[in-house]
Amino acid sequence: MQLILEIAFTHIAGRGRQTLVAIIGVAVGVGFSIAMAALMEGGQDDFVEQLVNTMPHVEVTDEERSARRQPAEAIFAVTEISGLRPREDRRGIINPTAALAWLGGWVPGRFAPSLNAQGVVRFSGREVGAAIVGIDPQSERGVSPIVGEFVAGDFAALTAGGNNIVIGDTMAERLGAELGDTVTAVSSQGLTRNFRIVGLFHTGTTARDEGEAYVLLKNAQILAERPNAVNKIRIKLDDPNQAPAVARRVEAELGYKAEAWQEANEALLEALVVRNVIMYTVVAAIMLVAGFGIFNIISTITHEKARDIAIMKSLGFAEGDMRRLFLLEGVVIGLGGSAFGWALGFGLVYALSLVRFELAATGQEMTRLPIAWSLLHYLIASGFALASAAVAGYLPARRAARQNPVDIIRGAT
């Protein structure tokens, strides 16, 4: 085997320029594949992280996942009822105190009750449609994405009591209101109540910054004419991946619809899977192109070394030795390209991690490209490279092994 290794390195070194070009081709393919994978997975991880952080991991509402079974369906097997419109139940989640106590006994995370009511916020002749969310400030701190996103005022001002409200800065801009101004909230039942703006938040999510207003839970219940009602419980888990299991248990026990964040964003998560498939398909295509360079080198060496092959086979080298020889040459080029590709890929990923750009939303906030540093990217790129090199080296190796040494020495084709 050592002799075959020495011959392989001699063949590769004999065509130094072409070998170097093939190695560079593989290295560029590996390097750019690593950089592309790091950038795309980093963007995906950042997107999922923002998605998880800006919404509850499990959301329990006062709805039922399917319509209640009617008494007639239980008595008559042939009964089928369709188009039934359920009666509106303004009580919300029945006995929310007991439900919250039960959740507190086992849920590995935090949760907060709320009452969401649709209405309008008015100020100085202007009005904006909004979701008026009644909350308990103490429990809301553990689940709300707005707590640390204030540009004026503070979330803690809600705990002081009274008719206070916090709204998004985009809503305030549309209303022409500022911190300390008094706005009027109008519920869908026509009730009105004045609130003083004690905080402005900016989350970067237009729907939230423009369409949500937060008040004390009691104030929302009065405004919506739903005393002691709670129609939503939001849960933040220590491990977001446990959300589906927690949602199933909550729904089975309470009977209300409990939706995990994975279920709520199923289409987006499926799109990310498709994007990953496309990404690794492109990586495979890049490596395949690099493999053609290796195939060209090994084919040329096989043609030029035909007499050497004849002499080696006449000296007792078997066909298997010939296949291993030229296959080894292809793999060596692949290994060399992978090694240089790792260095190139690391440099490209490091350079991308230093890229800074200015967010147009604020004009001041600076951020970096989301990059995922993972050894798996290097291993996958090298795996594709070595597989391409092995395939590119196998075909010429098989042809070399089948050559008849007598025909070669006689000059036959």
UniProtKB/TrEMBL annotation:
Q: Which residues form the MacB-like periplasmic core domain?
A: 19-252
Q: What is this protein called?
A: ABC transporter permease
Q: How does it sit in the membrane?
A: Multi-pass membrane protein
So what family is this one in? Belongs to the ABC-4 integral membrane protein family. LolC/E subfamily.
- InterPro entries per the record? ABC3_permease_C (IPR003838), Lipoprotein-release_system (IPR051447), MacB_PCD (IPR025857)
Q: Which residues cross the membrane?
A: 20-40, 277-298, 325-351, 371-395
The primary location reported for this protein is: membrane
- Lineage, top ranks: Bacteria, Pseudomonadati, Pseudomonadota, Alphaproteobacteria, Hyphomicrobiales
Which residues are in the ABC3 transporter permease C-terminal domain?
Answer: 281-405
The protein's location, in the record's own words, is: Cell membrane
Source organism superkingdom: Bacteria
Q: Where is the signal peptide?
A: none
Name the Pfam families for this protein: FtsX, MacB_PCD
What does the UniProt keyword field contain? Cell membrane, Membrane, Transmembrane, Transmembrane helix
